[in-house]
């Protein structure tokens, strides 16, 4: 039998209140449910990993991106019959990095083609030079300077800088701040597995 801690109901109520407020959970609330699942499965792990590297390996340059291009190569939503929902699925970025039989054939001036070219160019720069930032000529083509995650050794505050990848590229800070702050507080209060986060 699965043993739940005595405060499991309290924890569940806090999660429900944060994402759904007082509304009953129905099929109309799929976007909110997707946020819960995304935060629990991907977002917090990504943010925490970036913070740990920034804190304990401050000399290591590392880069984070936030893929938001909800384009016609977002094949996972189509395969899952969720194409009507806003946003991208985890893994949709792969269809922009690599060709796939699932990708629709699009004209060369399609947004998806531009996003792929920009994304692959920056990944190639990183593989070749250890830095995804394009050279000056590429900046004129709509690419931007991809800044590394800022080191935070000795600081109490972590600011996640990441490249938002869409039809236009831009650097953003803390795109999930409210949600990651909520989860950090849960981990501090209730622990993560058998461990609690330090104050």
Automatic annotation (TrEMBL):
InterPro entries: AB_hydrolase_fold (IPR029058), CarbesteraseB (IPR002018)
Entry-linked Pfam families: COesterase
Domain Carboxylesterase type B: 8-157
EC numbers on record: 3.1.1.1
Top-tier EC class: hydrolase
GO MF entries: carboxylesterase activity
Keyword terms: Glycoprotein, Hydrolase, Serine esterase
Family: Belongs to the type-B carboxylesterase/lipase family.
This protein's name: carboxylesterase
């Amino acid at each position: 039998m699965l043993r739940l801690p005595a405060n499991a109901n309290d924890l569940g109520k806090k999660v429900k209140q944060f994402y759904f407020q007082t509304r009953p959970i129905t099929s109309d609330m799929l976007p909110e449910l997707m946020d819960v699942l995304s935060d629990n499965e991907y977002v917090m792990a990504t943010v925490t990993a970036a913070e740990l590297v920034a804190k304990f390996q401050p000399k290591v340059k590392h880069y984070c991106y936030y893929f938001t291009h909800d384009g016609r190569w977002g094949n996972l939503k189509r395969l899952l019959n969720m194409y009507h929902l806003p946003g991208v699925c985890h893994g949709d970025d792969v269809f922009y990095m690599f060709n796939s039989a699932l990708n629709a054939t699009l004209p060369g001036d399609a947004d998806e083609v531009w996003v792929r070219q920009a994304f692959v160019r920056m990944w190639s720069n990183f593989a070749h030079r250890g830095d995804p930032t394009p050279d000056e000529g590429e900046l004129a083509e709509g690419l931007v300077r991809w800044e590394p995650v800022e080191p935070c050794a000795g600081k109490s505050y972590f600011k996640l800088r990441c490249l938002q990848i869409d039809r236009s590229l831009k650097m953003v800070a803390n795109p999930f701040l409210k949600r990651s702050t909520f989860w950090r507080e849960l981990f501090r209060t209730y622990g993560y597995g058998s461990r609690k986060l330090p104050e």
